Amino acid sequence: AELREAESTGDEIKAARARQQVAEAELREAESTGDEIKAARARQQVAEAELREAESTGDEIKAARARQKVAEAKLGLTLCTREAELREAESTGDEIKAARARQRVAEAELREAES
User: Which residues, by range, are in coiled-coil regions (predicted)?
Assistant: First the structure.
């Protein structure tokens, strides 16, 4: 409701804050279900909402930090997705598919470590 109101008035700062609150609520819900991929997506949405808020206020330092959080959240989502793909490949017994999935997990871990 707050988000719709803020968007209808054109108040970008208020709308950005409302989007962030929505994203944080979705994150809490995702974490409570134990769905790691859904939680990783929600973390990315929270980071993106923080970035929009920082950009709407013109706070360049906060925006730079938020950009870093967005990048980290994207890497986290990629790693989480790759690990799920690996578990699925291993469960099928397809060693070639599992080996490829292990490689993708290793690449995602490397990118995360480098960031």
Answer: 13-57
Q: Which range of residues forms the domain containing residue 65?
A: 2-114
Spatial CA neighbour of 16 closest among 37, 46, 36, 42: 46
What domain count does the chain have? 1
The residue written with tokens 């017994």 in the block is 93
d(C-alpha 42, C-alpha 25), whole Å: 9
Helical ranges in the chain per DSSP H: 2-9, 12-33, 36-57, 60-92, 95-114
Q: Are 79 and 108 in contact (CB under 8 A)?
A: yes
DSSP state of 94: -
Q: What are the two backbone dihedrals, phi and then psi, of residue 58, each rounded to the nearest 5 degrees?
A: 80, 10
Residues 68-100 have pLDDT tens digits of 999 999 999 999 999 999 999 999 999 999 999
Assess contact for 33 and 59: CB atoms under 8 A: no
